[in-house]
Amino acid sequence: MTGSVKIAWKSVAKRFGSHVVLDGLSLDAREGQSLVIIGGSGTGKSVLLKTALGLITPDKGHVEIDGETVRPDDPSDPGLDQIGMLFQSGALFDSLTIWENVAFKLLKAHKMKRAEARDRAVEALEQVDLEADVAFQAPRELSGGMLKRAALARAIVARPAILFFDEPTTGLDPVTADVINRLIVRQVKSLGATAVTITHDMASMRMIADEVAMIEHGKIRWRGGLDGIDSCADPAVCAFVQGRSVDE
Asked: Looking at the domain assignment, is residue 67 inside a domain?
């Protein structure tokens, strides 16, 4: 296993009412590596990401970025400023043009001048194979695949050291999903970023991952290299990856 630890979840616990979502979970993502997290619906994958984003505070344990604890109550936390995020739905603002969506962080957080931010946004759009004129269109004018690319451009525009991908291929046809997967791999490598992806898409996992971790009952059930996912000798993991029940 190469690279120093970039993100570390340390004995993280989170419950909502009586429902335990994360149960003392420990996991790390290493610098420059792509970690894909899999698991059934409701196993805590999205909650895990939100604890690293500072959107959810663990009941116990904590998350570290570069060895420093993430502080959800401090939006100026330098660890959080390193993160680019691709949301499952894209989450573009309908009232803004595509370039304004892509450059949102540059404009609002970095206080960049509009002309410079627009140029950076156009550059990011070109990096995900969108034409420059797309920058001046509204989100409603784009197809689902183009919207996903624009959302990816927004994730990379600030040249982050960490990229989070939440179900990046959900709702896309297989051909478009393959395009998005290839763009993700290209951008992660280009930035040299640490990437953490949660997905149900096994084709996406196989294309994106250096390592895979599976969550079950709020803990990490299995972790290993992509090359070992089919021969891990854990029936639950093998069944999930192959899309069948454990009893089959």
From this structure: yes
- 37 pLDDT more than 70: yes
Task: For residues 161 and 156, give the distance between their C-alpha atoms in angstroms, rounded to a whole number.
Answer: 9
Helix (H) or strand (E) holding 64, with range, is strand 60-65
Q: Are 176 and 144 in contact (CB under 8 A)?
A: yes
Residue type, 234: D
Residue-wise DSSP of 21-51: EEEEEEEEEETT-EEEEE--TTSSHHHHHHH
- Residue 53 and residue 149: Cα distance in Å, rounded? 21
Output DSSP code: residue 132. Answer: G
For 86, list phi and psi in degrees, rounded to 5: -105, 110
How far apart, in whole angstroms, are the C-alpha atoms of residue 10 and residue 64? 8
Question: pLDDT tens digit string along 62-94?
Answer: 999 999 999 877 766 777 789 999 987 778 999
Domain that residue 233 falls in: 5-242
In a domain, 51, yes or no: yes
As a whole number of Å, the CA-based R_g of the chain is 18
**Tokens representing residue 186 in the block:** 């290209």
Residue 248 covered by a domain:
no
- State both tokens at 67: 């060895």
**At 91, which CATH number?**
3.40.50.300
